[in-house]
Amino acid sequence: MPVQTDLDVEQFAAVTAPIDKPVVIKAGHSLYLNHHSLSCTYLFLAFVGPGSGKTCAIANRVIHIINNTANATGILCLTFSRNAALEMKERIVALLDHDTKILPAHIACNTFHSFGLKLSKKFYTFLNYTAVLIACLIVSPSPKLTCSLNN
């Protein structure tokens, strides 16, 4: 599964960067970081605006990591909106070969909030919390707002 060929120069540089270096895309520039606080080997951050090709670059970076890693057993992609997470997953799955060593189920595309919620629910006792309270704000047709708390 090759990387897409219609990437621009900055996208291609970011997508095909060495997988042992964290990559940050900021305003059209790819930067390779060598900072100890960013200890995740496959870190890829994109700080650019809408329509800049973030989703395309991320999807292709995932394929590049799968192609160049012997042990790609799980990949996590985080974004801000549900629509972006769904689109990211769709694009990654579309790029996967049928004979790939990683299944679509092993690629998680979540929002930052949903991922944080999953971690909170799973590890709240480890974090020394006695309960997790989840507040959902639902705007109904009436001016009354509803709040739901779950344990």
Describe the structure.
This protein has 151 residues and is of the alpha/beta class. The protein has one domain. It has four helices and seven strands; from the N terminus they run αβββαβαβαββ. Strand 1 and strand 2 form a beta hairpin.
- Give the low-confidence spans: 32-38, 142-151
**Major sheet size, sense and barrel closure:** 3 strands, mixed
Give the CA-based shape: globular
Q: Beta-strand percentage?
A: 15-25%
Order of SSEs: HEEEHEHEHEE
Give the oligomeric state: single chain
Work out the count of structural domains: 1
**Rg over C-alpha atoms, rounded to the nearest angstrom:** 18 Å
Q: Give the spatial strand order of the biggest sheet.
A: 2-1-3
Q: SS-based structural class? A: alpha/beta
DSSP summary, beta strand count: 7
Short description:
This protein has 151 residues and is of the alpha/beta class. It has helices spanning 9-15, 54-67, 82-95, 112-123, and strands at residues 23-26, 29-32, 44-47, 75-79, 107-111, 134-139, 145-150.
Give descriptors for this structure.
single chain, 151 residues, alpha/beta, two-stranded parallel sheet
